[in-house]
């Protein structure tokens, strides 16, 4: 398809066949919000379940479900209040707001405009002579501003308790870490997953469900001790990946690197082995659920793209309509999140790590004389005592002087060292409290769904007519099997078809029963929604040598095979799981001419 036509064809199919469509259309619609129809909801649910199976169940991780609204202090601690912004440029003529970096990228060869400063973005808009996409007015000279993406609300009546809809599911995991660590028996490493809604007040939503204001994330926060926990790459070291490192992106003739996870980590292309591990797991998972690996890559963030706390970050990207879409991010977040919540929150965000053998150490300690501090500092006495303890840990040499200077809520106070009762003690320690580091694979579920639909959309010709179909993986297809009685006026056919459909549903298959129209039209309807197999009950299966048999039709090739009814469930279980190929079924049974 030509560039742009893939998205247009997909949007038309999605609306007509019930995958997704704009929400609240009866009231004019609201940009950036979509409703998943019956097919789309089932596909999305299957993708979520496939992710849960691989990243929660198989990895032995925990799963939680946290609220989507959280109080303001959470986002003050996380940095979202001050730093969760996009670039906004407003048209002076019509008042329409646009995302400045997207305008620049859409009209130039620059692929990372989000790394520009606000001033540099304004200069680019002027240099490119960009116009408002809404009314055509010149945008040159318009200032580019920061726009915070969070939706604000109030918790309870009045406005005394401000809150925000979460812009990512991760904060729910970090905030609840003090309790979750107990469920993990305080044993690092451990992972916590969450699948849920997140909200971002996008300036200019676009590309259907790719950039929306409400979306679903599937995130894993993997907590490690960076000094003791090493990633085991044995399961993924031979996984082949297509990498686009920052060093290649910065070259005029930069190229992709085709390598394996093991080689990429060994050569330092992927600097962190934990990131390498999850890239390998993700590569195999994406292939399982049906992403076209010829249209898939891992791209490393440039320095200007990375969050300040992220030591390294890679995006999984899929190609749709000539554009690369970020569908997942893999970030090493160090101890930033837990340290910030430990600083702002009133709980313990550390984990006690026991040494293999007890250690004898010298420890600087103070035992402040509160009888002196109390009268001198009044209500600040406890803060002064705490500041003395902190200073002893950080700079014990400061107590060599006659007095020490402390910062108490921005005010400098001095304390005589004799009052601190400073000493260096020899202590035996069984372990230490550490703030775990975090490795985060974060998946966009909606973008994965969009990618699967785009990569699965195909056309061919059947019986002289053009056919469009979705070559979805059986692992995620919204419907597993279509069951059709060849005609609806023969009682024996209808009875057997009903029995087959009931047996398949009992075995866990999502089944659609259709007895309306010609068999060819019924096949086409199922092809368009990606149903991988159709079972047809015909007269030949009621009598003679073929008694108690049905035909299975494969969606992509249109090939058909006749199989015994009593082995149908087992055959379809193997086909859905991928343990049996359709060629295997053809070899063992009677091929039916289409």
UniProtKB/TrEMBL annotation:
Main localization category: cytoplasm
What does the sequence similarity comment in the record state about its family? Answer: Belongs to the class-II aminoacyl-tRNA synthetase family.
- Gene Ontology MF: a single term: glycine-tRNA ligase activity
Name of the protein: glycine--tRNA ligase
State the UniProt keywords alphabetically. Answer: Aminoacyl-tRNA synthetase, ATP-binding, Ligase, Nucleotide-binding, Protein biosynthesis
Every Aminoacyl-transfer RNA synthetases class-II family profile domain range = 6-478
Name the GO terms of the biological process aspect: glycyl-tRNA aminoacylation
For the keyword Ligase, the answer is: yes
Identify the EC number(s): 6.1.1.14
| SUPFAM superfamilies assigned | Class II aaRS ABD-related, Class II aaRS and biotin synthetases
Localization, per the record, is:
Cytoplasm
Report the PANTHER family cross-referenced here. GLYCINE--TRNA LIGASE, GLYCYL-TRNA SYNTHETASE/DNA POLYMERASE SUBUNIT GAMMA-2
Q: Which Pfam families match?
A: HGTP_anticodon, tRNA-synt_2b
Q: Which domain of life is it from?
A: Archaea
Nucleotide-binding in keyword set: yes
InterPro entries given in the database record:
aa-tRNA-synt_IIb, aa-tRNA-synth_II, aa-tRNA-synth_II/BPL/LPL, Anticodon-bd, Anticodon-bd_dom_sf, Gly-tRNA_synthase/POLG2, GlyRS-like_core, tRNA-synt_gly
Q: Which GO terms describe its cellular component?
A: cytoplasm
Q: Which organism is it from?
A: Haloferax mucosum ATCC BAA-1512
């Amino acid at each position: 398809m030509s560039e742009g036509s893939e998205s247009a064809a997909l949007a038309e199919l999605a609306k007509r066949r019930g995958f997704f469509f704009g929400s609240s259309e009866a009231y004019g619609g609201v940009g950036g919000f979509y409703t998943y129809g019956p097919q789309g909801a089932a596909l999305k649910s299957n993708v979520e379940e496939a992710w849960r199976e691989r990243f929660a169940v198989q990895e032995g991780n925990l799963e939680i479900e946290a609220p989507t609204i959280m109080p303001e202090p959470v986002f003050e601690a996380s940095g979202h209040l001050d730093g969760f912004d996009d670039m906004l440029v407003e048209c002076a003529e019509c008042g329409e707001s646009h995302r400045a970096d997207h305008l620049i990228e859409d009209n130039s060869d620059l692929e990372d405009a989000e790394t520009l400063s606000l001033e540099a973005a304004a200069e680019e808009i002027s240099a490119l002579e960009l116009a408002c996409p809404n009314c055509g007015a010149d945008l040159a000279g318009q200032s580019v501003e920061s726009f915070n993406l969070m939706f604000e609300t109030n918790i309870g009546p009045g406005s005394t308790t401000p809150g925000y809809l979460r812009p990512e599911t991760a904060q729910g995991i970090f905030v609840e870490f003090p309790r979750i660590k107990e469920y993990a028996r305080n044993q690092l490493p451990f992972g916590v997953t969450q699948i849920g809604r997140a909200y971002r007040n996008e300036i200019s939503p676009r590309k259907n469900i790719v950039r929306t204001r409400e979306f679903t994330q599937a995130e894993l926060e993997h907590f490690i001790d960076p000094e003791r926990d090493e990633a085991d790459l044995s399961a993924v070291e031979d996984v082949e990946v297509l990498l686009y490192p920052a060093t290649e992106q910065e070259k005029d003739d930069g190229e992709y690197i085709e390598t394996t996870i093991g080689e990429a980590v060994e050569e330092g292309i992927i600097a962190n082995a934990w990131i390498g591990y999850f890239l390998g797991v993700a590569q195999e998972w994406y292939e399982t659920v049906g992403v076209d690996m010829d249209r898939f890559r891992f791209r490393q963030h440039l320095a200007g793209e990375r969050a300040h706390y992220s030591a390294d970050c890679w995006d999984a990207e899929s190609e749709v309509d000539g554009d690369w879409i970020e569908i997942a991010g893999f970030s090493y977040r160090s101890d930033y999140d837990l340290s910030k919540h430990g600083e702002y929150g009133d709980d313990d965000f550390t984990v006690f790590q026991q040494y293999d053998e007890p250690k004898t150490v010298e420890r600087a300690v103070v035992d402040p004389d509160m009888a002196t501090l109390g009268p001198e500092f009044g209500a600040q006495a406890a803060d002064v005592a705490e500041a003395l303890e902190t200073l002893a840990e950080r700079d014990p040499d400061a107590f060599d002087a006659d007095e020490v200077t402390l910062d108490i809520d921005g005010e400098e106070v001095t304390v005589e060292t004799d009052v601190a009762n400073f000493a260096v003690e020899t202590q035996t320690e069984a372990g230490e409290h550490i703030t775990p580091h975090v490795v985060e694979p974060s998946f966009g579920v909606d973008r994965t769904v969009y990618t699967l639909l785009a990569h699965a959309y195909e056309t061919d010709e059947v019986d002289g007519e053009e056919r469009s179909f979705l070559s979805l993986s059986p692992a995620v297809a919204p419907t597993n099997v279509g069951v059709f009685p060849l005609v609806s006026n023969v009682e024996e056919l209808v009875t057997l078809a009903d029995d087959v459909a009931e047996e398949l549903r009992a075995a866990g298959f999502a089944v659609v029963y259709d007895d309306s129209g010609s068999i060819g039209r019924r096949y086409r309807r199922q092809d368009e929604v990606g149903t991988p197999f159709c079972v047809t009950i015909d007269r030949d299966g009621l009598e003679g040598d073929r008694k108690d048999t049905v035909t299975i039709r494969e969606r992509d090739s249109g090939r058909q095979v006749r199989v015994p009814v009593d082995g149908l469930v087992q055959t379809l279980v193997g086909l859905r799981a991928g343990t049996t190929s359709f060629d295997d079924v053809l070899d063992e049974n009677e091929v039916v001419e289409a």
